[in-house]
């Protein structure tokens, strides 16, 4: 026995630890940290920011100088390449300059491009956070309904088995047994529907958190506490959303980038200026000749007309997108406020002590029926009403929590400090 006990511990302890590791219980704040660290969608969007930063760095660079050399080869009676003092050679260097403010405009456009990708990253992070919180709240309240139904199913199963035995003895009718079985079947069907929802939520949580084990929502008391009031009036919330919501910021930056690109394309019609210097040994005019070169293309045919028209169309598109985004943001805020109002009214109309009353009803329902204080039909009706109310109440709480999350997402601010 002394030898067997250590062996069993050595076998069971790793297995138990693996079972514990397979379940991840998280608060909303812990889930946010995991999302930021693991989300592949955010990793991909971060790569877009890195690409935009690379574009900004590239826009700040000057053109490389161009060096060229010319040597005379194959003259009769001389070496194939005459590199000495009497041989002709030409050395030239040339630098291309962007004029008319083209470089500064290109840099500003690239900086705006980075602002767009940063705002898009923040908007994506906020959208994923909303989805994560909504899923966690839904899982938490759905699990409460499943737990409540499970205990009721156990009571109903025991009562059904007892009636089955009485039916075999001829003490109760088939109608009574069938009604109990029908109530059990209907309640179990509700439980199956809730379990399907939990399975879908589990799949979403694993995908969002890049987790292979089971993710269980375990919100803190503060995270479950519903806000007592909305801290700001609707007009202020709308104005705040239009200015601070990341989608609106991205659309504003895109509109500014389009305006800068239009200026840049118009300036690009001005040709680049090429300045250089040339050294010519044994040239046509002097034995050692030094010259300065200047050059530019003549904008006779290509005056960048196509790109200018493209930039004008892109500017109109960006302006329309900005206005549409601001309108969408405004409507989302108003919708979230109305959604909260309707759900809060529904919750306020519910008896504050309904939870306790339902618990009392659950405890006394079977007992009263066994004591013949209520008839079978009344018992099953109350039983179904009790469980439907439990499910609806938990669904209402999940919807209301989600509505407050939607308002924070729509405004782009943490309004309730949760």
What does this structure look like?
- It is built from 11 helices and 6 strands.
- With about 425 residues, it is α+β, with helices and mostly antiparallel strands.
- The chain has 2 domains: about 25-65 and about 100-270 and about 310-410, Outer membrane efflux proteins (OEP) (Up-down Bundle), CATH 1.20.1600; about 65-95 and about 275-305.
- A 4-stranded antiparallel sheet has the order 2-3-5-6, with no helix packed on it. The chain has a two-stranded parallel ribbon with strand order 1-4.
- Residues about 1-20 have low confidence and may be disordered.
CATH-defined topology of the largest domain: Outer membrane efflux proteins (OEP)
In the CATH hierarchy, the architecture of the largest domain is Up-down Bundle
Beta-strand share of residues: 5-15%
Write down the domain tally. Answer: 2
Note the main attributes of this structure.
418 residues; alpha+beta; Outer membrane efflux proteins (OEP); 4-stranded antiparallel β-sheet; 6 strands; elongated; disordered N terminus
Task: Offer a quick outline of the entry.
By secondary structure, this protein is an alpha+beta fold. Helix content is 69%, strand content 10%.
Can you lay out the helices and strands and say which pair or pack?
Blueprint: H1 4-21, E1 23-26, H2 28-38, H3 40-60, E2 66-71, E3 89-97, H4 102-168, H5 174-209, E4 214-217, H6 221-224, H7 234-244, H8 246-267, E5 273-281, E6 288-295, H9 305-349, H10 354-370, H11 376-411
Parallel strand pairs: 1-4
Antiparallel strand pairs: 2-3, 3-5, 5-6
Helix pairs in contact: 2-4, 3-4, 4-5, 4-8, 4-11, 5-11, 7-9, 8-9, 9-11, 10-11
